[in-house]
Amino acid sequence: MTIWGGVTICTVAVHSYQGLLVQRFFLGFAEASVSPAFNLVTAMWYRRKEHPLRIAIWYSSTGLGTLVGAMLLYAIGKIDGALEAWRYQFMIIGCVTSVWGIAIWFILPSNPMTARFLTPELRKVAIMRIANEQIGIENKKVKKEQVREALRDPKAWAYVAITFFIMLTNGALTGFGTIITQSFGFSEIKTILLIGVVGAVGFVALLSFGIISVFIPNMRIYIGTFACLPVIAGAAMVWRANWAAAKIVPLWGMYLMGFFPAVYVMTLSLATANTAGHTKKAVTAGMIWASYCISNGVAPLLVFASERSDQYPTTFKIVIAGSTVSGAILVALRGYLMWENKRRDRVHPVDESEVVASALLDRTDGENLNFRYQM
């Protein structure tokens, strides 16, 4: 986080396209560790049924950032200084991020055993409540057999595929959302404020779905599949609406597409809850984040300026197709998890004495036949 903030500040010194490419490479390089790290920290602190809401809470900051960020960037854009307004934006945001990264180094414990705000007795309680979840505890040793299992696990590749296809929406919404919204007929300044509402939609959707998943068990896949529907509807509205006649219709379509982060968060919570073994969890989180990055790299290439008069048909066809495929994979994944749980019930019914004995062992979900998958 600290390095990412520093690289962000370096944008101020960029004066060429080539320089921006280099700067953006290191920006992505620094950012790549954040989401997998948050996944691992979540798994070390919270029980599996608590994961969806906790992940939704920290990931909802992306929606809140879009909302608050739009207003903040609007305000910074009014600075009348020696530099262009956009350079002040990167300078201020980068500095704040670096300072917060340093603060996190001291504030956020790596695991319950190093939490200064817990007494020794409460640290043991925190460890045991996670140990009984059978997902393993932190282990500094990289286990090759767990790496191999992660790469062979069909669940892991399902998470990768869902992430890739749903994140194609990011190209239309986050990368080019302002440009597309301005095409509806809004002014540049008003567009910046209007696009912030997309963040508000994502923020409310994530917290609402997170709360539902806590109180109603095994709802992750249902929620993820349902969240694909407004994305599909929103993309269709933007693509097929008459922008000249009623610009509010495509604007609402943009807002509906703001549901797409809910699909990603439910996928993250599935991966965190259903992956045991510290090395396997780390590798799986890395695979998902790599898919996230690749999709976000591909998505902007699917928005063609030449299609503006036709209302970007390629872009929104791909969003519709990607969301549909994500929903289909989620449905198939639920079927697979149900089948696997029933198979384990037949060949190895849960033995509570084994569960207690293996609670603190760093075993994968594939090795531990007492492990049951959540949906």
TrEMBL record:
Classification via SUPFAM superfamilies: MFS general substrate transporter
Keywords on record: Membrane, Transmembrane, Transmembrane helix, Transport
Subcellular location: Membrane
Species this chain originates from: Aspergillus pseudoustus
Organism domain of life: Eukaryota
Membrane topology: Multi-pass membrane protein
UniProt-listed InterPro entries: MFS (IPR011701), MFS_dom (IPR020846), MFS_trans_sf (IPR036259)
Transmembrane portions of the chain: 25-45, 57-76, 88-108, 156-180, 192-214, 221-239, 251-271, 283-306, 318-337
Protein name, entry field: Major facilitator superfamily domain-containing protein
Phosphoprotein in keyword set: no
